[in-house]
Amino acid sequence: MQFDFFPSKTLTLYLARTFVVRIAAVLVMLVLVLQALDLLSQSSKVLAYEGNGQGELLRYIGYRMPQLVARFLPYSVLLATIITLATFNQNSEVVAMKAAGLSAHQILAPLLLAALAVSVISFAFNERIVTRSSAALSAWQAEDYGPVAPDSDVRTNVYLRDGDNILSARVLAGTGDDIRMRGVQWYRRDAEGRVTEKISAPAATYANPGWLLDDPVRFDVAAAQEIPIDPVRIAKGVSPRQAELGRIDPDALSLTDLGGAIGELSDAGRRTAELESKWWHKLSGPLSAFLMPLLGAIAAFGLARSGQLFVRAIIGMMLGFAYFVVDNAALAMGNFGAYPPFVAAWAPFLLFFLIGETLLIRTEE
Q1: Domain membership of residue 222 as a residue range
Q2: Which residue numbers in the chain have pLDDT < 70?
Q3: What is the pLDDT of residue 1?
Q4: What is the pTM for the complete model shown?
Q5: 111 with 16: CB under 8 angstroms?
Q6: Does residue 142 lie in a domain region?
Q7: Distant-in-sequence contacts of 94-102, Cβ < 8 A, 24+ apart
Q8: Residue at 81 is within a domain
Q9: Which candidate in 160, 185, 251, 292 could, as Cys together with 168 as Cys, close a disulfide (CB 3.0–4.6 Å)?
Q10: SS3 277
Q11: Backbone angles phi and psi of 283, in degrees to 5
Q12: Is residue 124 part of a domain?
C-alpha cells in the first residue's frame, strides 16, 4: 500500500478538488488586488494621450492581466497549499488519513498531481496568451499609449552597432525590406569611443544599403548646436535582419520562436547566454507550481493542538518564498554569464525539490 500513491479514488478527488478550488480563489484575489494597484499607477499615463478613455483603460487591463496571472500563479499555489494543508491538520483530517495507513507522500500525491496539471496549463497559457499580450503591451507603451501601427512584428528599444557608431530606435516595426524605425537616434563616434555627432529623426526606412532618415536634426557636439538637415542615409552596414535581431524580448516570444532567434544570434557570433537562460526558464518556471505542495507540506503534519501549526505554516511559506528568491538570483547570475543557462534555470528547482523531500522524509516518513 505504501507504493500505491492513489489508494482511494474518492479521497484523491476530494483532496485535488479542494486544492484546485483554493488555488483559483487565491489567484483571483491576488490578481484583482494587484491589477487594481497597477491600474492606479498607470491610469494617468494611459489617459495622458489625447482621446484615451475608458476603452483604453480596459485595453490596458486586457494586456496586463495575463502577465499578472502568469507571474503570481506559483505564489497562488503556494498559499493555497498552506491554507489547504493547515485546514486539514486543524480539522484532524490528516490524523484520520494517517490512521487509515496513508503515508505523507500518499497524502500529498493528489495535491502534487493537481499542481502538475496547473504547471502544464500555465506553460500553455504562457505560450499562447502571455507572449502575445506582452508583445502588444510593449508596442503600445512604446507609442506612449497612442495608436499602434498594425504591424505583424513590433520591437521596442532597439540598439545596433555599425562599426564604432550606434543606431537606436524606440520602435522597430515590419520585416524584411519593409522594416521601419521610429524615434531614431544616430551616434557617430571616433576611434576612442567619444560621440562626435548625433542625428535624430522621427522615422527611418531601409534604403538598401543603409537607413534613410526622415526630417533629421543634427546636433554637433563640438559646437553644441542643433540644425535641421536634408534626409541622410546612415548605418550602411546594418541589414534588416540585423535590425530584427537587435532586440529580442524573450517574454514576447514563444519557446520555439525564442529558440530560433537564439540559433540565428549564435550563428552571427552574438552572445546568447541571457536568452538561453530565459529559454530554459520557460520550462522550469511553470513547473515551480509542482514544487509548492512539497515545500508547503510541513503545514500538514504535526498535531494542531501542539500549538505549532502557525509556526509550521510560516516555515512552509518561508520555504516557498525562498525558492522564488533563489530562482530569480540564479536567473540573474545566468544572465551575467556566471552560471551556465541550464544550471541557472534548473538548479533552484532541483535544490528545493531535494530540500522538500528531505524535510518530508526525515520528519514524517
Answers
A1: 154-249
A2: 1-4, 149-154, 221-222, 243-247, 268-270, 302-307, 364-365
A3: 45
A4: 0.79
A5: yes
A6: no
A7: 94/300, 94/301, 95/303, 97/11, 101/1, 102/7
A8: no
A9: 185
A10: helix
A11: -95, -45
A12: no
